[in-house]
Structure formats: structure tokens, C-alpha cells
Amino acid sequence: MYESLWNYPNSLFGDFERLRRELDDAFGVSGFPSSIRSVAAGSLPALNIGRTATSVEVYAFAPGLDASKIDVTLDRGVLRITGERASTVPPAERGKVNVYARERSAGRFTRAIALPDDVDPSHVKANYKDGVLQISVARREVAQPKRITVQ
Q1: Which of 5, 44, 115, 133 has CB atoms 3.0–4.6 Å from 109's, for a disulfide?
Q2: Once rounded to an integer, what is the mean pLDDT over residues 33-59?
Q3: Which residues pair with 74 in a beta bridge?
Q4: From the centroid of its chain, how far is CA 8?
Q5: Rounded CA separation 82/70 (Å)
């Protein structure tokens, strides 16, 4: 519909974006969010969030986690996913191994998602299967679309 201002090659916004990328490359900075609604690259877990007529669906992609170590809470409209991914380097080898590249993060993580006001906190389901945590939060009955019969 509307083109992004980032796509124009000689626009002021495009120049600022190019300058930001060049400075990041020059100073070795990486992992900063690319926009106000993003998180740093490599944030764990990666999320997909959507809404149906009856629920808000959150998919967290976190392979290799123990489901018993994932904590999901909903408090005052904020869904919080907390957990920990164990390091791939065995504890006995941590002082002896030099790691040259690490693309899979390890350690504790927390992701917080602000949910719409029409969710029902008493109807939340979470399921972890094949590395994907699916959280379904039901929307209140009054917020769901109603079909009205025309007479």
C-alpha cells in the first residue's frame, strides 16, 4: 500500500539507515534492534504473535529446552515467558575450550508481551512440542465478533 521511506535510495531516512549500518560495522556493534518494535537480533526465543476471532496466539520458537524449566505468567495484561537454555559446552570443559563462533545463545531469558485489553486471563493454554511453545489466550466473549440478523 504505502512504500517504506527506508526504500528510497537518496532519501534522508535511507542515508541515516546506511550511516547507522556503517557505524555498527566499523565499531563491531551488532544485535541492536532495527526499530522501536523489535528486539535485539538473537533474542531468545523468537516470537510470532497473532490474533483470531476467539484468541490471541503466541508462538515461541525455542528448540532444545526442557518444558519443565519454562515459566509462563500472565499478570496485568503482560505475558511473560522465562526459562533457561543450558550451555552446549560441558561444565568440566568451560575453562579449557576456546569458542570461536557462537550462534546459539545459552543462559536465562525473559520475553514480555503486552496483550490487548480484551483477553481473558482465566483461559490460558500453553503447549510445548517439537521446540515450539504455543500459548493461546482466549478473548472475552464481549470482544468477539457477533453476527447480527437483519430483519
Answers
A1: 44
A2: 76
A3: 79
A4: 29
A5: 6
Mean pLDDT, residues 79-101? 80
CA distance readout (Å), 69 to 36, 64, 97, 131: 30, 11, 27, 13
Mean pLDDT, range 64-70, rounded to an integer: 88
Strands (E), 1-151: 46-51, 55-61, 71-75, 78-85, 107-114, 119-129, 132-139
**Could you tell me which residues come within 8 angstroms of residue 87 by beta carbon, excluding any fewer than 6 positions away?**
94, 106, 107
The contacts of residue 94 (CB under 8 Å, 6+ apart) are 87
| C-alpha cell recorded at residue 114 | 503486552
Which cell numbers in the block locate residue 53?
476471532
